[in-house]
Design a protein that fits this description.
Elements: H1 7-21, H2 25-32, H3 38-53, H4 55-65, H5 75-90, H6 95-108, H7 115-137, H8 147-156, H9 161-168, E1 174-178, H10 185-194, E2 199-201, E3 208-211, E4 228-230, H11 233-242, E5 249-253, H12 259-267, E6 272-277, H13 280-292, E7 298-301, H14 308-311, E8 316-322, H15 337-340, H16 345-360, E9 364-374, H17 383-392, E10 396-399, E11 409-411, E12 421-428
Helix pairs in contact: 1-2, 1-3, 1-5, 1-6, 3-5, 4-5, 4-7, 5-6, 5-7, 6-7, 8-9, 11-12
């Protein structure tokens, strides 16, 4: 039975919203997926994420194949061509199906007069691909990153930047967090073995397991009952460092979508957790996560720079500040970040992080613990931010993470490890 929708045209519309309107895929896809079958959702995501992952390659190819790009009202057809090329180069979908469906995408986008052009360009690529593909792998687009970001990575990591870029261009590994209220990690590993799902424990983070082959969550033992959560290993490390205890008053600031909130409560079920985020929409996900895991937290909408409006005069035993950042450590999970971020964003984000740090520090009790974390790999948001904070706060001591010269711990993305992530653990004297 033929579906009433054309996936390639939907993918082209999603990519258009990212590149032309500055929206993230995670914002755009839910609305576009509403009437799509579960089977097709996976393919739609593959087309969108994959195309954005290798965008410069596809752009270069189109430059070789067309005298001039499609612009204006026909711009979405340019992205449709990219989706077609992505499938021909990077998927195992039969070429005849790719051409038929991508050409039909022009009709779905109400541009039937361009069917011939779409067909012609894709067939021309098929004829020339043996000559084009080696050239594509050797030109400036091969790193698949914007030039401003490459420049920053080369400066911060002169010997490691190529490994970082390579890791960013891979598909992300699937990490699980075992809910220790229900099972130890070893017990859950046995349950996975019984289900014939192969997994490897993380060497350092106590609840983390990596699946050798990613799978659907409904295949995971006890997922619906809250036995396990899908969460990157590096994100789990921030709660290990926080070391929450029962009976404590704990603040999880910038908490959405709630992965760390629920992890805190799994580690210390009798703690009182206040989870705060500025984004009302994303707080819905916090409530959903708490509900699935049958955990309770006090959830509030609020700006991290104005704690008096949501915390009043409350003082916390521990604060986890997962600061808003460039997200340059999680590019492999969100390839749209490469095309949504601008070089100028970094200074603005660093300013915002500083304001939040300064605002919430007075709400930490004496001898209390704060973990500052970001999913960034840029020093401006991480080690330089904390170094500047320590300089003006003699009542803050860095512990367990780095040195005074190079404060904090920086994880870099790695194929068999967690995402890029930064942590600094501070104690208030």
């Amino acid at each position: 039975m033929k579906t009433a929708y054309n996936l390639r045209s939907i993918a082209a519309q999603a990519i258009s919203q990212v590149l032309d309107k500055g929206l993230s895929l995670s914002t755009v896809l839910p609305g576009l997926q509403k009437n799509i079958s579960d089977k097709d959702r996976g393919l739609l995501q593959e087309l969108c994420f994959g195309t954005l992952r290798v965008l410069p390659q596809l752009e270069w190819c189109l430059q070789q194949l067309m005298a001039k790009p499609l612009t204006g009202k026909q711009r979405t057809l340019h992205y449709l061509l990219m989706v077609g090329l992505y499938q021909l180069i990077h998927t195992r979908i039969p070429a005849h199906a790719i051409l038929a469906e991508t050409v039909e995408g022009a009709v779905a986008l109400k541009r039937p007069q361009l069917k011939g052009l779409i067909n012609g360009v894709l067939r021309q690529f098929q004829r020339q691909q043996e000559e084009l593909l080696p050239r594509m792998s050797n030109n400036d687009s091969r790193h698949l990153h914007p030039s401003w970001l490459l420049k920053r990575l080369k400066k911060a990591y002169p010997t490691e930047w190529e490994n970082i870029v390579d890791a960013n261009n891979q598909r992300p590994p699937m990490w699980l967090r075992v809910n220790r209220i229900h099972h130890s990690r070893e017990e859950y590993l046995n349950l996975l073995n019984e289900a014939q799902i192969e997994a490897v424990p993380h060497a350092e983070y106590r609840d983390a397991l990596r699946l050798v082959t990613p799978c659907q969550v409904n295949l995971l033992p006890g997922f619906a009952q809250g036995w396990v959560t899908v969460q990157d290993a590096s994100a789990q490390g921030s709660v290990d460092l926080l070391d929450p205890q029962d009976g404590e008053m704990i603040l999880d600031l910038c908490c959405a979508p709630g992965g760390k909130t629920t992890h805190i409560l799994e580690a210390a079920p009798k703690a009182h957790v206040l989870a705060v985020d500025v984004d009302e929409q994303r707080l819905k996900r916090v409530h959903e996560n708490l509900q699935r895991l049958k955990l309770n937290a006090e959830v509030k909408q609020g700006d991290g720079r104005e704690p008096q409006s949501w915390a009043g005069d409350r003082i916390f035993d521990r604060i986890l500040l997962d600061a808003p950042c460039s997200a340059t450590g999680v590019i492999r999970r969100h390839p749209d970040i490469k095309w949504l971020r601008r070089d100028s964003d970094i200074a603005e984000l660093a300013k915002l992080q500083k304001e939040i740090l300064e605002a919430v520090w007075p709400h930490l009790k004496s001898q209390g613990v704060m973990v500052y974390a970001t999913c960034s790999i840029l020093p401006d948001e991480n080690s330089e931010q904390i170094a500047a904070f320590l300089e003006v706060h003699p009542d803050a001591t860095l512990v367990e993470t780095g040195t005074a010269e190079k404060p904090g711990r920086q994880n870099l993305p790695h194929a068999e490890d967690g995402d890029g992530f930064y942590y600094a653990k501070l104690i208030k004297n």
